[in-house]
């Protein structure tokens, strides 16, 4: 939501602000390849990194002059969101110390149709290596369903699987398919997985698919996290995943990785090509 200037006060240091700005100067063009013009949500940390988080999504007051917005229909009527792009990012960082960038993977033309499906693997108290194994298992099951995904290390120990989709299916249809798919994964290995548990079992990986529908959201690839180290949501190759359990990148270290491996999110989405949501 859009807040007053006073509410945007923060305890970020000058060094932290500089790191955040430099990171998004580097990664915003990568994000724009897939999310330009789509609604996005940004997060601020008014008490400093690692503290209380505030999500800013639907605009609650006058839309900012000269900044593109998106109309998003919902149960509470049509609401407006900032549209991802240079103007919105410039306004966001000028008016609020934004740290995280979120979205729901929709198409530019219609916020209720999906460009990506997503499965979030929440590790709870599980060791990161176990979450990596769980992601690998889901990747195999997706391939058996004729789908491929891009794994993204969420920077918190969680993993997100981004599934590019052709055909612009409705987000609600994608969520329904994902729930059935994940329910099947839970049935195959109930000791490893739970599905959208409200009180997750600390010893099982919780699978979430709700952020695929409009006005629900989770962190975009290359977004920062608002922890004290400013971890990065880092796309990795499937071949990297088994060795990446402890390989978490931050705003200080990510630029070097990008220089070495390039834009792995784009590379993998391009390699996957067209794929349709199964019937």
Please explain how this structure is put together:
The chain has 279 residues and is α+β, with helices and mostly antiparallel strands. It starts with 13 loop residues before the first helix and ends in a 7-residue tail after the last helix. The protein is globular and about 50 Å long. Strand 7 (150-153) and strand 8 (159-164) form a beta hairpin. The chain has 6 helices and 12 strands.
Draw up the topology in text.
Layout: H1 14-35, E1 41-44, E2 54-56, E3 69-72, E4 79-82, H2 86-95, E5 100-103, E6 116-122, H3 128-144, E7 150-153, E8 159-164, H4 171-188, E9 193-195, E10 205-208, E11 218-219, E12 234-235, H5 254-261, H6 264-272
Parallel strand pairs: 9-10
Antiparallel strand pairs: 1-2, 1-5, 3-4, 5-11, 6-8, 6-10, 7-8, 7-12
Describe the structure concisely for a colleague.
The chain is built from six helices and twelve strands. The protein has helices spanning 14-35, 86-95, 128-144, 171-188, 254-261, 264-272; strands at residues 41-44, 54-56, 69-72, 79-82, 100-103, 116-122, 150-153, 159-164, 193-195, 205-208, 218-219, 234-235.
Report Rg: 18 Å
**Average pLDDT reading:** 90
Q: How many separate helices?
A: 6
What would you call the quaternary organization? Answer: single chain
Total beta-strand segments: 12
User: Strand-and-helix sequence, N→C?
Assistant: HEEEEHEEHEEHEEEEHH
Largest sheet descriptor: 6 strands, mixed
Instruction: Kindly state the percentage of residues in helix.
Output: 25-40%
The 3D shape can be described as: globular
**Distance between the ends:** 36 Å
- Segments where pLDDT lies below 50 for 5+ residues? 1-7
- Order the strands across the largest sheet as they lie in space: 9-10-6-8-7-12
Strand content: 15-25%
